[in-house]
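Following up on my earlier thread - several people asked me to post the actual chain instead of describing it. Fair enough. Here it is, all 238 residues.
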Amino acid sequence: MTDFREQDLAGACSERVSLRGATFTKVFLNDATMHAVDLTGARVRGALFNESRMRGVEFVDVEISGELQNVVVNGVDIAPLVEAELNRRMPERARTFPEAALHRSVDDEWSFIQTLRHLNFASAAWAGRMILGSPSPWHQLDLPWDEAPGWDGIPWDREARPSLEEVLTVRRERQSMVRQVMESLSDEQLASEVTRTEPGWPLVEDFPVKQCLRIVLNNEWEHRLYAERDLTSLATEN
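Reply from S.P.:
Thanks for posting it. Predicted structure:
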């Protein structure tokens, strides 16, 4: 079996090639052209399909979880339809579930508690570090995204099993922090940019403050919908 690592295969042509069972990690397929390919059973995580075009494809028993914007299927933008359906689903509150259920993964995605831990991480990163300038705003229960490269000094224990109250205590602190940031920002500060070059993450220069807040809010909105969707699935199982 041939392995390709740290190679530039730009412009390569593959024809009548079988890649069944192959694994692709950090592979760039920008502007690639695929014709008559078979992706049956494929598993794709952390991928970007921005500005992609698919013609003559078959989507049968397909599951897509992610951010949808301007996703046109057979001439219909389905993103607003999906958002409306997720909004309609507002399920039972998490406190009505047994603790074990809140740690249960649905379709290999994060559990409800892991989702809360990730939201805590996002608030610490984009409000605590980027806007407030704290070089290490982390809590031991914070959880980066699964495809993150990993950093020294940033907690990342996916298998931790804290109680709901432990995670909610951190969440209340982070929500209070974000609220104070938003209430204290002047128009001038909101229009400014921030740079963070200390070891850790995020590591960016001249990044708009308003974009930091947008990332926090988008995380809150999108992951809440995912969590509520999964709680509905757990309720059905029970």
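The first strand starts at residue 72 and ends at 73. That should answer part of your original question.
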